[in-house]
Amino acid sequence: MSQPQVKAAVFDVGRVIVQWDIRLLYAKLIDDADRLDWFLANVVTEPWHMQHDAGRPIAEMVEERKELFPDYASLIDLYQHRFLETIPARVPGTASLIERLHESGIPLYAITNFGADFWAQFRPTEPLFDLFRDIVVSGQEHMVKPSPEIFRLAEDRFAMPASAMLFIDDNVDNIAAADALGWCTHHFRNAALLERDLEARGLIG
Predict the structure, then answer these.
(1) How far apart are CA 14 and CA 193, in angstroms?
(2) Same domain for 98 and 187?
């Protein structure tokens, strides 16, 4: 069976376009490995961070967290001010594929789980997004992947049916949600595998 005709590429951001790891910040601040592991598992955690992706202001979250963990108040405070240190670089190879897609005339979009406050800090640092026609940011919309609602919003915003768009994400739950809604999908593992898929679909030469 032939693949559906894809007319646009829709990227996730974290761990697809740019690297992201909370540990990178706190490894600079906590020199004991066991204490660092405990802190990342209990205090500043990815599930806690996801509240910001879903729309909660980071300042509100930080104040609440400091009340729960007063001994770590100063470290928690730093998360809202030094968040960009959790994004060290681009994911190798993805940027060049995005540039090739753009050169081929393929419309570029993104759907990202990203808090509004942190997006405001990060977006000006990454000129690659100037190539994108639109980006759905979860924290601005108060809905997160893998919720079907954010994919339906993206269809409306991008003015294109799901079957005409290739959704690229590293999270298998997000891929499954998009599959269920009729999107074409690519489960991102590395840029080399993505390049092969884009070539097979005729999106890049």
Answers:
(1) 17
(2) yes
Query: Which residues partner with 10 through β-bridges?
Result: 109, 167
Q: Over 60: is that where the pLDDT of 1 sits?
A: no
124 plus 193 within the same structural domain: yes
pLDDT tens-place string over residues 183-196: 999 999 999 999 99
What is the DSSP secondary structure assignment for residue 186, as one 8-state letter?
A: E
Residue 102 near residue 38 (C-beta atoms within 8 A): no
- Is the dihedral angle over the CA atoms 143, 144, 148, 150 positive or is it negative? positive
**Reported pTM:** 0.96
Last residue of a domain, one of 42, 67, 86: 86
Q: Is residue 43 part of a domain?
A: yes
Q: Is residue 2 part of a domain?
A: no
CA distance 25 to 35: 14
Could you tell me how many residues make up the chain? 205
Query: Do residues 66 and 93 share a domain?
Result: no
pLDDT of residue 4: 66
